C-alpha cells in the first residue's frame, strides 16, 4: 500500500510503498476514502523539517533539553546516533480521515466490514491507503453524511474541546482570534450554542467567510473597527471569552485577548501561539487562562486510546470519542457546515506536489483533502497475516553450524532495535539482514531503508517458515516476548529476545515447554551488561574470591514521560519486570551463581524498589532501583566487596579495583559501552559455528524467575524462595 511520509532530517516528502498493517484485536482496519491535510499543524511540521539543524533546535527547545539529558546519561556518540537515527527516518503525516472498515479485529462489535467511520490520531489516521485504528479513535458516520465531510471529524473534535473548555453560556459574547480551519469551526460551534461571535484575523477573505458562517463581525486584529464592534456588542464591558486559535511567533493574540476581554473573563488556548502573558493586564482583570488539550479527555492516555478502556459517562461526559461522534452529528444535521472550508481536493497520488504547493504559498487553502482511489482491493489482500506456528516436518538438531553469511530476521524495529542493535549488525561481516517484521507498516519500511533488510513485511508466519533464516531477533513490546520466542523455537530458529523473556510464570513455563517439545534450546536473552568490556576487565582485575561477597547496585532509573508504554503495567508489566533482569543477570554473573531467594520492599508512595538477592555461598546482592533521584546523577553504579577487595563501576565510564594493588581504568574517550556489540558478536559466533550459546539457558531461566519473584515478594511482604524444579 502507499503512505505519505517525510524525512525530518532532509525534509524529503514521499509517497512510499509500505506493508499493509495488521488488524490487531481491539480495532479495525480502515481503507481511506478522504483524509484531511491540516494546513496549520502539518505544514508547521513540514516547514520545520526544511530548517537547518540549528533552526530545528530553536523551534523545539523541549527536544533539545531531552537531548542534553541523554548526553549527560549516555554520552555524546550514543546520543548522536540515537538522534540522527530518529531524524533520518521516515515519519508519517496526517491525523483526520474518513474511510470504510475492511476488517474487524477481535473484541469489536459496534461496526462491521463495509461501515463508514471517521478516524482520529496522528498514529492511526494517517495519510495512507489503509490504517489500523483502535476502538476509541473511530466513530461511525451518521447516515447521509458525505465521507469528505466526515473527514473533518478530528479537527472538529479539537475545536469542540476548545469550546467546552470555555464553558460558553447562552447570550454571551466570544472573540475568536485566528480564523483558520480551527477558528472557523469554533465560530460555528459557538453560534450553534447560542453565543454571539466576533472574529479577528488579518486575512479579509477569512473574515468574510467567518461572517458567512455565523460570526456577527470580524476584522483585522490591529483595526479600530474590531474594538468598536466589541464595545457595541458588550456595552463596553468586553467579551466574556476569547479563543486563541492562531499560530506563529507573535504575542499579539495574547495581548489582544487581555485588551478586549471583560473583567474575570475566560481565555482559552487552542492553537499553538506565543504565550508571553502580560502580567499586569491579566492580573488587573483576573483573567481565567485555560488550555484545551487536543480532541478531549482520553488523549495521550494509552489505556484509553490503545487498550479501549472507556471513561464512565457519569464521570467524564465528553471523551475524545464522544466529541468525535458529537461533531459528526452536528455536521449531519446541518448545525455545522464544512463544505465552505474545503478549498482544494487532490488525488492521493499527487500528495507530494500538493504539500509543496501549500508550503510555497502557491496553493492557498483553509482545508485541503486527499481523495483515495475508489476501487477497493480484495479483502484477502488486506487481511492481517496469521501468526500460527508453522509446521516443520523435520527439525534440525540444535547446535548445527550454519553457512556464511548468517541470515537474521528482526521482529520489531523500535528505538532500541534501531539505535542499539541494528547499527552493530548492519555492517558486520558474515551477517545478512534478511527480513524485518512489524505490525506498523512504516517502521518496517524505515528499518529496511536504513539498515538494508532484503524484505519488510507484517507476515510473521512467513518468516518463521523460511528455512533460510538462521536466527530471529524478538525486539517487540514486553507482553509479546514469550509467545514470539515460543513460536520461533518451535520453528527451529535460534532466538535472540530482548529482556524480559517472560512476564509471568506461565509464560516462562510456555517457553520451556517449547524447548522441550522441539529439542531446540538455542536461546539468548539480551542481558548485555555482562559483555561490557569495562566490566569484563574489572572482573578480571578483581580476580577469584574465596569468601562470600556483598554487592550493591544503584540504578537511578528516573521518571518516565507521560504516555510512555512502559507505564502500561496492566499489559506490559512493571518497570522492574521489564528492566530488572539486566541488573540481576549482572550480579549473578559477577558472583558466578544463580540466586536462591529474593526479598523486595518498596517505600509507600513511589516506585522505588530495594531488592535483596541471596546466593548459595551466602553472598548477597542489593539492587536499589529508584525513580526519584536527580536526573543529573549517573544511572548505574556498582560496588562488589569480598576478600578485602572492592570493585567499583561508575556508569560504564570508569572502573576501579582496590586490593593489594589498585587498578583504575582510564576514562573512556568515547560513549558508554554497555556490551551490546560484544554480546551480538558472541551470539553470531554461536549461530555460525553451532557452539554453545553465550549464556547458558539455566542462567537465563534463573534470572527471569528471580525477576518475577520480585513482584511476588512485594505482594507477600516476605522473602521468596527460588526452588529448582524441572
UniProtKB/TrEMBL annotation:
CDD domains the UniProt entry points to: 2-desacetyl-2-hydroxyethyl_bacteriochlorophyllide_like
Residue ranges constituting the Enoyl reductase (ER) domain according to the UniProt record: 50-367
Pfam families named among the record's database cross-references: ADH_zinc_N, GFO_IDH_MocA
Gene3D superfamilies on file: Dihydrodipicolinate Reductase, domain 2, Medium-chain alcohol dehydrogenases, catalytic domain, NAD(P)-binding Rossmann-like Domain
GO function term, MF aspect, one: oxidoreductase activity
SMART domains: PKS_ER
SUPFAM superfamilies cross-referenced by the UniProt entry: Glyceraldehyde-3-phosphate dehydrogenase-like, C-terminal domain (SSF55347), GroES-like (SSF50129), NAD(P)-binding Rossmann-fold domains (SSF51735)
Keyword presence, Cell cycle: no
Cofactor(s) needed: Zn(2+)
Keyword Metal-binding: yes
Record key words, sorted: Metal-binding, Oxidoreductase, Zinc
UniProt family annotation: Belongs to the zinc-containing alcohol dehydrogenase family.
Protein name stated in the entry: Bi-domain-containing oxidoreductase
Organism: Streptomyces guryensis
